[in-house]
């Protein structure tokens, strides 16, 4: 089934839209707080479609992702009991929250960097950082470094690879898409 190839082709078309940078910014912000789909699925096609603007797109993604992370931090810091705790209990995610807390106790700053760079759900750690009152400036710094490295790497690879990368990416899009789904499911069970 070519589900991801169809979505990829649509994303390439959407990436040419005049409001694509604004949409990318909004998705980047939301993905750091609540949105479940990684923003890379929008960044990569935009960087391929407009390679001369790839680094600009990476910068936008980084800025708005970090701003979203800061909003997640504030959500955890200011609204844990009235909003976050009931949501965690409703969705049965207290174990994930407790695991994130233990990772912060063990690794501190490095957890935000790792969550920012890897497929680990960054949003879980932004809210948890706020709940635990992790020092804000190191949190922001780790977010900038981790998210920036990730998004600039994606944009650079797409720009560097150009049409050849696009051809290979499209050819293997369904394999990559299903691999990401499997990794997300594995991360879900790991964090459970």
TrEMBL record:
Keywords, ordered alphabetically: Membrane, Transmembrane, Transmembrane helix
Regions that span the bilayer: 55-80, 100-122, 134-155, 175-191
Source superkingdom: Bacteria
Residue ranges of domain VTT in the record: 38-157
InterPro entries xrefs: DedA_domain, VTT_dom
GO CC annotations, alphabetized: plasma membrane
Protein's UniProt keywords contain Nucleus: no
Protein name (Swiss-Prot/TrEMBL): DedA family protein
Natural source organism: Aliidiomarina halalkaliphila
Lineage of the organism: Bacteria, Pseudomonadati, Pseudomonadota, Gammaproteobacteria, Alteromonadales
């Amino acid at each position: 089934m070519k589900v991801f190839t169809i979505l990829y082709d649509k994303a390439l078309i959407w990436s040419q839209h005049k409001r694509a940078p604004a949409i990318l910014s909004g998705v980047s912000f939301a993905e750091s707080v609540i949105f479940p789909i990684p923003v890379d699925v929008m960044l990569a096609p935009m960087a391929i479609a407009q390679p001369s603007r790839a680094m600009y797109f990476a910068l936008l993604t980084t800025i708005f992702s970090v701003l979203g992370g800061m909003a997640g931090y504030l959500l955890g810091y200011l609204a844990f009991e009235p909003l976050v705790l009931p949501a965690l209990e409703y969705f049965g995610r207290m174990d994930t929250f407790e695991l994130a807390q233990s990772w912060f106790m063990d690794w501190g700053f490095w957890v935000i960097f790792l969550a920012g760079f890897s497929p680990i759900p960054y949003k879980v750690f932004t809210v948890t950082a706020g709940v635990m009152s992790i020092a804000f400036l190191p949190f922001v710094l780790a977010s900038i470094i981790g998210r920036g490295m990730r998004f600039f790497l994606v944009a650079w690879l797409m720009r560097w690879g150009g049409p050849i990368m696009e051809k290979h990416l499209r050819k293997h899009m369904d394999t990559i898409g299903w691999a990401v789904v499997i990794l997300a499911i594995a991360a879900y069970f790991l964090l459970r």
